[in-house]
From TrEMBL:
Pfam family of the protein (one): Methyltransf_FA
PANTHER family noted in UniProt: BTB DOMAIN-CONTAINING PROTEIN-RELATED (PTHR47457:SF1), OS05G0345500 PROTEIN (PTHR47457)
All residue ranges annotated as the BTB domain in the record: 211-273, 351-420
Residues passing through the membrane, by range: none
Full protein name: BTB domain-containing protein
Top-rank taxon: Eukaryota
Pathway assigned to this chain's UniProt record: Protein modification; protein ubiquitination
Lineage: Eukaryota, Viridiplantae, Streptophyta, Embryophyta, Tracheophyta
Entry's Gene Ontology BP terms: protein ubiquitination
Species name: Arabidopsis thaliana
InterPro entries: BTB/POZ_dom (IPR000210), Methyltransf_FA (IPR022041), SKP1/BTB/POZ_sf (IPR011333)
Length: 492
């Protein structure tokens, strides 16, 4: 017997596949299957134009089909196959953790766009997507399969996918693999208006733009500009709230200070082995403790390995990423104490710009360098010679106070928190457009993710509720929700 089905629990034997009349997309080529899976490896989902058999095996299938394998190669990789040919073979250890307990997944197909995510609700927590350059728009039946070990499935459901989900997904930052006509794979980064490794805080390293303090280095008193809010959020520097602070560093060479500032402004630096100890001492003086630890670990490594001292050997030092999912983005990959940064924002210490929301008579104190590292629009406003470049005040109109407050909090904390927001849905739409207006791409992505989560919960509720017994009525309610969102977008 291929499957034992009790209380919505399904066990698929090795090298077999379970099919059901319920596991079918309502519209060919467009649908989503959500499920919980328990397996040691190879959770295999088949998408075909016709129903397969109990002893179906995808490696012997000559008909058009898609195969998604979660946990291939002993729970380490994600694979996608098209008509028996591998088109995706990616390291995905964070996705493929289905051996210890049931894990929730969803897989959707929309005109050849295969999207894979984790979580109870479909259409949220998007992890991976791949676009078939020659999409099969006729696949409709879903098979739950296995490889050489039993796979347990439960809570299996099929949902519709609408064009609105695809529009939102295009705004979500997710690695995408696209196939070209030759069948080769290309890995691209989608969803970012610019590369944060090329545009961001590093652009202000030792730049006079927006600087409000200066180091005088060595006996020659070389001028090196910096920004108070960045320094103080990263360590403990002798700064005052007034303008014109000067930090005298006699006996310190420029390469040592440069390495310290480069680490603070970019999250990484490179220095000669002979300069590790001076860099450690300077970092300790200003309490940049993550760099102190990096230097000490490198020194200990060379001492323990008894490697011959090489004064010309370069050592790379990299700040640990506090939130791996955020990637190399401020402030997660920088030696910044987020708590201190948020406090500097809330107290207005070292602030050099006041933002008036003219329609609401509200004022926000901020720091030009923080606004600029998140937003190219703000950076241009403050540095291209416009009136705002020489002013400590700017005026904004047609801005929701709640949305602007949420955007400012995001810029200083790197996180979006709207749990206590009144009129959450309306303010989320306002925030989405505000992020787009100022080019705050990561915030724009977070807003889109929240919209997807809201939609997925509504879809799940209507599909599971006893009050809605047919999928057409479920789809009708979801369509009403999309119309409501579109109406609010137009009226913002």
């Amino acid at each position: 017997m291929v499957a034992a089905k009790e209380n919505k629990f399904l066990t698929v034997a090795p090298f077999e596949c379970a099919w059901s009349d319920d596991l079918k997309f309502r519209e060919a080529g467009r649908g989503c299957v959500a499920f919980d899976a328990f397996a040691h490896n190879d959770v295999t989902v088949v998408f075909r134009e016709n129903v397969g058999t109990q002893h179906y095996h995808y490696k012997k299938d000559n008909s058009p089909h898609y195969i998604v394998i979660i946990g291939s190669n002993r729970n380490r990789r994600l694979k996608i196959q098209v008509d028996g040919k591998s088109v995706v073979d990616e390291e995905a250890s964070d996705l493929c953790r289905c051996s210890l307990e049931f894990q929730s997944y969803w897989i959707s197909i929309y005109d050849g766009l295969i999207s894979i995510g984790k979580g109870r609700y479909p259409f949220q927590n998007l992890v991976f997507k791949w676009q078939d350059p020659k999409p099969n728009c006729n696949v409709q039946y879903v098979g739950l399969s296995s490889w050489d070990k039993h796979v347990g499935y439960r809570n299996v459901s099929v949902f519709p996918v609408t064009h609105n989900h695809i529009l939102l997904w295009k705004q979500v930052d997710c690695r995408e693999v696209k196939g070209d006509e030759s069948g080769d794979e290309k890995v691209v980064e989608e969803g970012t208006g610019y590369d944060y490794e090329q545009w961001g805080l590093g652009n202000f390293l030792e730049s006079w733009q927006l600087s409000d303090t200066v180091f005088l280095v060595g006996d020659e008193e070389m001028d090196v500009p910096a920004h108070k809010v960045i320094l103080q959020a990263s360590g403990n520097f002798p700064l005052r709230s007034s303008d014109g602070d000067v930090i005298q560093l006699r006996g310190v060479s420029y390469p040592i200070l440069h390495a310290l500032l480069q680490y603070i402004y970019t999250g990484r630096t490179q220095i000669l082995e002979s300069e590790l100890a001076p860099l450690r001492d300077l970092s300790s003086k200003f309490e940049v403790m993550s760099l102190v630890r990096q230097c000490e670990e490198s020194i200990d490594h060379f001492n323990l390995s008894k490697t011959a001292f090489d004064s010309c050997r370069k050592v790379k030092l990299l700040c640990p990423i506090s939130h791996p999912l955020s990637g190399f983005m401020f402030p997660s990959a920088f030696p910044v104490d987020v708590g201190k940064l948020v406090k500097l924002y809330s107290t207005g210490e070292y602030s050099d710009i006041k933002i008036y929301l003219s329609d609401h008579s509200l004022t926000f104190q901020s720091h030009k360098v923080i606004l600029s590292l998140w937003s190219v629009a703000f950076a241009k406003m403050f540095t291209n010679g416009m009136s705002e470049s020489h002013s400590s005040t700017i005026y904004l109109t047609d801005v929701s106070p709640e949305a602007f407050k949420a955007m400012m909090n995001f810029m200083y904390s790197g996180e979006l928190n709207m749990e206590d927001t009144v009129n959450f849905g309306t303010e989320l739409i306002h925030l989405l457009f505000l992020a787009d207006r100022f080019g705050v791409v990561p915030l724009h992505q977070e807003c889109c993710k929240m919209l997807l989560e809201c939609l997925s919960e509504v879809i799940f509720f209507f599909s599971q509720s006893s009050r809605v017994n047919d999928t057409s009525r479920c789809h009708y309610h979801v369509s009403l929700l999309f119309q409501y969102i579109c109406y609010n977008m137009v009226s913002v």
